[in-house]
Amino acid sequence: MNGTAGVLEAAEPVVPAPRWDSSSPSRRGVLDLLREHAERRTHETALVFAQEQGDHAELTWAQLQRLVHAHAAHIAAGGAAPGDTVVVLSSSVAEQVLGFLGAIAAGCVPTIVSYPSSKQSADAFEAMLRPVLVHSRARLLLHGASFAPHVGGLAALTTLRPFAAAAERPPPLAAVARRTDAPLFLQFSSGTTGARKAVAVSERMLMNQAASYAAAIGLRTDDKVVSWLPLYHDMGLVAALLIPLCHGVTGIHLSPFDWLTRPEMLFELIERHRATLLWLPNFAYELCAQRIDARCAARLGTLRGIVNCSEPVRPQAHERFLDAFGALGVRAEMLQTCYAMAETTFAVTQSSFGRPASVDRVDRDVFLAQGRAVPAAAGAAPGQTLAMVSSGRPIEGAQVRIAGAAGERRVGEIEVHSDSMFGGYLFNADGADTLGADGWLRTGDLGYVAGGELYVTGRSKDLIIRRGHNIDPTDIEEVVAQVEGCKGGRVVAFGIDDPGRGTQDVVVMAERAGPEVDAQSLRCAIRERLLTAMNETPGDVLVCEPNTLRKSTSGKLSRSGNRQLYLE
Fold first, then answer.
1. pTM
2. pLDDT tens digit string along 506-527?
3. Which domains, ranges and CATH numbers included, belong to the chain?
């Protein structure tokens, strides 16, 4: 561990990433970089918008800049003034991108929000959207025509023109002055209710993140990024769209719904465009391994990085992905990891490209009872160990420490500080407690440091404490997910207070794969597997029908949301 005692810092870079200098007249922001790409690489492909059905749309750098300016003029004509918050609501990835960048070009502060599914009523969606509009103090909501019924009860609306309708040459766009630390765009923390908090990302934060993260992964101008990730989440917006855009890297995007409908489309795009970089949350590794036929013709050998981010990383997910797709060209050194959050724009740490992410096998009993990550003894049985996957080292400009930890391998709350970090939640006084007096962010995540690398073990607020014994719900979910009859990736575990015994009970909710699966038999199988694998006996096991469990806005199963569902 280098730097100040107890603080994990970035290794000395071979070539230091340029930092944002607010005093320099030559400092460049995202629009400056877009203009440079349009001038120097006029006819090269900037973005590809793929569709499950229909033609794919490609934009050159010059076309992208022209359309961004057209959308900026459209937004200004709709009544938005510089500094106003503009909310973008569309199921079209192209409309999301152009509306977002157009709002920035108009001097506004955009935020992309999740759009309603076919099963969500207009009233339910409006109830979810209204707090976002209030918390962001939005002045304008740009929405696709198909969502008019969902926003009919909201004021100050305009309709984003269809992607192909902004083809006329726009008038010259006057540069809009923006303070260095003024909000450039808003990201919202993940959640299932209006309690989500707004994170304001400034130009300084974005440029520092873009420089540091590009250096951490060795980003090259000939890289190609492919993504199905939602743009209302920092992994999709920053890692897969904005950082590549800043560095002139081509991005290939498809909608999350198209990917879920036909996951193999992702592999087809990788082969077709010879993509090199891909970011996935942990559940997507499992979904791909379960739903994509390994005999498909797509070749994946052009990839140099498949980055696992946004959820606790499980080694089993990497192992199953590698086993499933090794014949297609996936290699162990491609499987990378990252620790990231909206509050730091995106990444805090990143594993080292070119070698597999480190796996630390620790003594299970000591870890759970004492909160220490002691290396497991040689020859220890699988049931006596826990395998932890490293999230890598801090990127340049970032620091990590474990609260209250004296030395390495002590589990505690992860605290971070970086030059791409926010100064507190926007329009929300409750968020002030997240930052300590010294300016460090208390993440609410648990982890430890070993060998100069960060290992994330779970969420402190999700931890189940039963008779003084700490239980990570992710471990339970991993075990239950392997029970035959469970629907892949549709298991959630959480704790319920038992006042009579002064402790917590474990509750497991699992969706059955289909009507042919007997609920009582599956319930018994889950109990038996947990007893055998973890020596745990849950207080309740609830077998649910497919698509019952609630997700957060980032598409992950929500423990708090499903706990609420269980208690209703």
1. 0.83
2. 999 999 999 999 999 999 999 9
3. 351-413+431-459 (no CATH), 464-567 (3.30.300.30)
